[in-house]
Amino acid sequence: MRLALFGGTFDPIHNAHLTVAREAASQFHLDQVWFVPAAHPPHKSDHTWTDFFIHIGTIILGILIALGLEQFVEYLHHRHLASEASRALLNERHIDEEANQFNIFATRRHQRDLQHDLVMLHALRAHQPLQPGPFIIQHVSYIYAGAEWQNVHQSGTINYLTGNLAALTYRYQIQDRFLDLLSRSNEDLARAASVLRSPVDPLNTSYEDNVAFSGFFRRLVADPLSVRGSRRMRG
After folding, report:
1. Between the CA of residue 90 and those of 95, 96, 102, what are the distances in Å?
2. Alpha-carbon distance 146 to 164, whole Å?
3. What φ, ψ does residue 163 adopt, rounded to 5°?
4. How far is CA 27 from CA 3, 7, 21, 22, 198, in A?
5. CB neighbours (10 Å) of residue 136?
C-alpha cells in the first residue's frame, strides 16, 4: 500500500490542505494520505496537551464537514446529469415512437411486396409465366435515433438514472435487432434481384427516378394513408 504522511499545524484546517492531499494522491498514485498534526509547533510554545487534543478534534470535524459537503455537491451534480439525460432520452423516445409508426406501416407494405416476389420466384423455378409487375426490392424505413442512449453509456450517466432501465434497454435492443434484420433482408433481396437481372434491363438510378421517389417518400411520411400506391424499383 502506498502511503503518504502530511504534517503541519492545520490550525485551522481548510480546503487548501484537502486539495494538496488530493493532488498528492493523484500525482503519486497513493492509496492513503495521513494527516499528522504537530503536537507542539515551534512557533507556539504555549500550547498544552488539552489544547492539542481540542485541535485534533477540530481537524477531524473540519475534514468530516469538508468531505460531507464534497459528497453533497457531487450528489447534486449527479442528479443534474440524470435529469438532463432523462429529458434527452424522453425526446429521443418520442422520435423513435414516430419511427416505429412509420416502420410498422412500411413493413406491412413490404410483407405484401415479399409475397409478390415469392410468387415470381416460385414461377421461375417451375418455369411458369410470371405475374405482371417488377421484382420489388425497395423497402423504405426510418433509422432509429440512438445517440442519447449511447451518450449516457459513454459518459457513465447511466449509473445515475433511476426507473425501469431494463425495459428501456430492451426497447433499444429490439430497435437494433430490427435494423439488423432489415439490413439482412435488403441484402437477400438485392442478391435475388441480381440473379433475375438481364443485360437488357434498364438501370434504376436515373436522376428522374430519384426525384420521383423522393417526392413519394415525403408524401408517405406526411400522410401514409393518403398514398394509395407505392413506387417499385426494379432490381
Report:
1. 9, 10, 19
2. 18
3. 100, -170
4. 13, 18, 10, 9, 70
5. 23
- State pLDDT tens for residues 113-161: 888 888 888 887 888 887 777 777 777 777 888 889 999 999 889 988 8
Cα separation of 73 and 67, whole Å?
A: 10
Region 83-88: mean pLDDT is 92
pLDDT band with cut points at 50, 70 and 90 for residue 204:
low
CATH architecture, domain defined by 3-77: 3-Layer(aba) Sandwich (3.40)
Q: What are phi and psi of 9, to 5 degrees?
A: -80, -30
Do 146 and 178 touch, CB atoms closer than 8 A? Answer: no
Calpha distance 136→117 (Å, rounded):
6
* Mean pLDDT, the chain, integer: 76
Chain region(s) in the chain for CATH 3.40.50.620: 3-77
